Every structure is written in C-alpha cells, then in structure tokens.
Amino acid sequence: MRLMELEKLFNQNFLYDLSFFNFENAITATYFADADLNIIKVNKNFRSLFNSDVTLEGQNLLTLLGLLDVAQSYISEFKQKLNKDGKLLIHKIKIKVGDEERYFTLASTRTSSAFSNELIGVQGQLIDRTNEVTLQEKNEELLIENEKAYEELSFKTERLEKISNQLAKYLSPQIYKNIFETDTDKVETYTRKKLTIFFSDIKEFTNLSDRLDPDLLAEIINEYLSEMTEIALQFGGTIDKFIGDAILIFFGDPETEGTAVDAKRCLDMAIAMRKRVGELDEIWKKEKGISQGLQVRTGISTGYCTVGNFGSVQRVDYTVLGSPVNLAARLEAACSPQEILVSPETKGLVSDLFEFEEKKPIKLKGFSDTIKPYQLIIDNENEKRVAHSLHSSETLEVIVKKPDDLEEILRELKSIQDDYREKLTKREK
Fold first, then answer.
1. Where are the alpha helices (DSSP H) in 42-194?
2. Which residue from 2, 108, 144, 266 puts its CA 20 to 30 A from 10's CA?
C-alpha cells in the first residue's frame, strides 16, 4: 500500500507540477522539453497558441516556434544562447495566433535534478505582453505626434515672431502694445480724447527729391524719419503715420499723464527735433553734398479728437481724426522755415513753461474763424533743458552680487558718468 502511494506521489505529471510551480495551472504559456528540445509536456495556455488538431508532444520546440511565425533570427538566437548559457530571455517576439499577431516574452532554462531523470531538460514560458507593447506603441506614436506638433508650433511661433517684428515697424510702439496686449474688443472701440497733435514736413522736399538720385533720396529720408522717430519715442509720442516726408504724432493716447504734461512733452519733442534737424543738415552738406539746407516746419494744436481704428474691412489704421489734426496741418503749412507754430489752446496749457511770440490772426482753410497762432521761442536755455531731460531719462541698473566687487563697480560707474558728461557737452555745443 505504501509502495503504491509512493509511486503515485512521484508520477511524471505530479513531478512537473511540483517542480515547476503548478505547471498545468500557470497563467503563462508553459512548456517542458527534453535536452534536445522535444516537447514532453505543455499546459493549456501553451496549447491554445496552436490549432486544436496540432499534436505538440514529441515535436521539436524550434519547429513549433516556426509554426507560430516567430522570426528565424529569434529561433537562431534561442538555440545559440541556450547552448552557450543554459538560459535565455528574449523580451519581445512576435507570434501569430490564428489571424492575430501578438507579442510575448520568451524565457527558457535548462533544468537538472539529482532527484529524478524526468526533470532533466528545458523548461520555459511565453509571457503575453501584447497589451503592454500595444500601449507602448501608442505612447510612442503619441510622442512622435507631440514632437511633430511641437515642431510645427515652434515653426509657426518663429514665423509669427518674424511677422510681428516686421509689423512693429509699421506701428507706433504704443499702438503695437495696445493691439497685442489688450482685448481685441477694446482695440476696436473709438474714444474721444483731448490730445496734442504734432505735424511737420520738410520745406520744398518735392523739389529736393526731384533733383536727387533715388538711392540717395531713400537714404536721406529714411535717416531723417529714423532720427525723428527715435526722438518721438523718447518723449512718449504716438507716431500716427508718415506721409512722405511729413510726420503726424499725437500725445495723450493710449497713455497720458494729463493734458498739460502731454502738451509739454510735445513741445519738448519739437525743440529736440529742430536741433537734430540742424545737425543732420550740417552732416548732409558735408558728407552727401546736399547744398540746399534742410528746413522743417512744425504745427502743434490741442483739442478733442476721435481716436481708434478707421478704414475698410480689408485694412484699418489706428489713427486720430478731428479739427485739431487739421489745425496742426494748417499751422505747419503757414510756418516759415524752422518755425514752430502752436494753437492758442496749446499755448495756454504751457505758457508758464515756454515763451511765445504772438502772431497775426490768420484765416486757415477749413476753419470759419481766424486763428491766432503763437510761435514757440527757442533759445539756448530751452535746448539745454530739453537735452538734459533726454540725458536724465537714461537709466542704468546695477546688480551687486558680491560686496567685494563694489569698489570695481564704483570705478566703472565713474567711467560711465564721464562718458555721459562728454556726450552731453558735445550735444550742448
């Protein structure tokens, strides 16, 4: 009785289950083969990989892998590593199960036992990784798509930046900021504000342009407008437009510190522009051979205007409309060369800061009543004050990271101070 129980205990199937951790009920596709890789036993999961009419026991494992459409390179790798190392692990092989392609990890090892010859051979398992591989592939696809989207976004962003930089050349910085940093609805509204308007042009510029080479003309006008633009921005003016050599600038929109401050800044700007025009005139006479003097006329007025986007569906301009605009243009046309004429309202706002000469009332086109213009008196004191205002507006930020560097920083600041003083002295001469 005891002998029969012992035989039952150590029969072949029981030995497999005992030695290979519940062989039959393993969740993986498990096999056991002899030393020559001939199949001795498989579990139900391994059997499910094949058609039901295929006999597995006795067949060579490598042949069975071929029936599953495993790549020949993997079959060769299986044989070589098993013979060399006695074990192997192939992380991902593709197997055809019926009409479906699935992915498995193949793990196998040679076994030996001093207890039973029945356990000497090769034991292995196929671990289904299809869901994992599919998810990984989807993640990789998503990553590739994201990379492509990022590249496209970077390209579009770069292109937008280039367009934006180009667009900035056609807009006043204040208007540019207003468009790109505020709500679209706000940009498209019209507002009525009290503004100070500046209008200037070059005397007899048409005659000058007819006599000059086109390249030289373009060089001169671009330099002139660039210099005037720089000065306008320094004083906070909003550049409305260039009309040939004419310049339209306004103060009080989109930012203002009060009507009187706007008017003062406009007149300070006009003084700085006239001084720079004189300097450019000397440079052009000397370096470009332009004998005709560069003379600019300027008209300035203050009053309520409508400011906003005007134009067609296809194109709009952020500009200013109203009688003060027309008045500034008429005053400019009535100027003598190098004169700056201002309206009575503008003069009233800054009379305590500037000197004016009252001119005879004049009849201007588009105005029913006569207008009494005032000529801005410009002397050395005016120019020095404006130059100092420009100079003092320049700031320098210094960050001291190490106290030990303070002495060196002070020496550098002294050097900068000397350079600025030299520039200011040259500007005042």
1. 44-47, 61-67, 72-85, 130-168, 173-181, 184-187
2. 108
